[in-house]
Amino acid sequence: MANLETIYLGLKLKNPIVAASSEMTGSVEDIQKLEKAGAGAVVLKSLFEEEIQMEMEQMKQQMTGKPYVYPETMDYMDEPVEEDQVRKYLRLIKEAKSAVNIPIIASINCVSSQKWTYLASEIEKAGADAIELNMFILPTDFSRSSVDNEKIYHDVVNQVSSEIDIPVAAKVSYYFSDLGPALRRLSETRISGLTLFNRFFAPDIDIDDMKVTNGHVLSSPSDIHLSLRWVAIMANRVECDIAATTGVHSGRDVIKQLLAGADVVQVASVLYRNGATYIAEMLQEVESWMDKHKYATVEDFRGRLAQEKSTNPAAWERAQFMRHFSHFVRHK
């Protein structure tokens, strides 16, 4: 029988399917369902940097009644009357660790390396096995260069990882002017893993009401191709593990990402559509494929089609596909 065990961020996982950060990983009950369904690990619902900073400011106001807070009053800021989002998050980590046996990876959605980074040590104390920093700096600030934008990523990673001993992963977007080299440089910091890529708010336009609305919230199977390409290109070229995400909707998609070189595969949208129990079906599909091709372990085939090992490496870089249109019948 196929052995799906793998190592990610130095953690031993029973299989490479990880429940990505979402509403489905925001309660102990849901996390237990994911473990029962077979998830190898869980990335908790993200705590947003804005939430942390807002609550810090509110507590300062409550303590002093003024915008300025004296340093000595900070000693009392761990005594708020009501449980804030940060405390709820730390409690979720503690309770999840007591309730399940799979690794619990905390998640912080951040855009800077400001004072919120103190929270990393609290997350470690709460028992998290690792932290995933979900970073998305949209390059729309015309006063910042690409070098300035990349520096933000490095500053966040270095600041957080300097305060803790547990592994740190960076979940990033593809908005880099030199994506491949940028990912390699990021991998050479203190991170233990890269998650390719984060999925963010996609605007759309309602042409009748004349307003900006939400685009597609959930991914579709066709969305896999961007991360698949870059997982294959970066496999064996970065100094850390790789988690593939976005567009993974079946066991076959998991296999594709592993063949491309991913260490684990994160899923979310498919669980919204089919429920947590769908993980078991995906695992069964992976096991059946492994048995059919006589692979005993995931390591036996991981990265076999990565660009560095591929017999046709140019296929991963080909950007033009006009000649492929000749296969389609045109309407007249």
TrEMBL record:
Is Flavoprotein found in the keyword set? yes
Which pathway does the UniProt entry assign to this protein? Answer: Pyrimidine metabolism; UMP biosynthesis via de novo pathway
Keywords (A to Z) from UniProt: Flavoprotein, FMN, Oxidoreductase, Pyrimidine biosynthesis
Q: Which GO terms describe its cellular component?
A: cytoplasm
A Pfam family hit? DHO_dh
Q: Which GO terms describe its molecular function?
A: dihydroorotate dehydrogenase activity; dihydropyrimidine dehydrogenase (NAD+) activity
> InterPro entries from the entry?
Aldolase_TIM, DHO_dehydrogenase, Dihydroorotate_DH_1_2, Dihydroorotate_DH_cat
Record-listed E.C. numbers: 1.3.1.1
Major enzyme class: oxidoreductase
Task: Enumerate the cofactors the protein uses.
Answer: FMN
Gene Ontology biological process terms from the UniProt entry: 'de novo' pyrimidine nucleobase biosynthetic process; 'de novo' UMP biosynthetic process
Domain Dihydroorotate dehydrogenase catalytic stretches: 85-290
Task: Indicate what this protein is called per its UniProt record.
Answer: NAD-dependent dihydropyrimidine dehydrogenase subunit PreA
Q: Which organism is it from?
A: Salinivirga cyanobacteriivorans
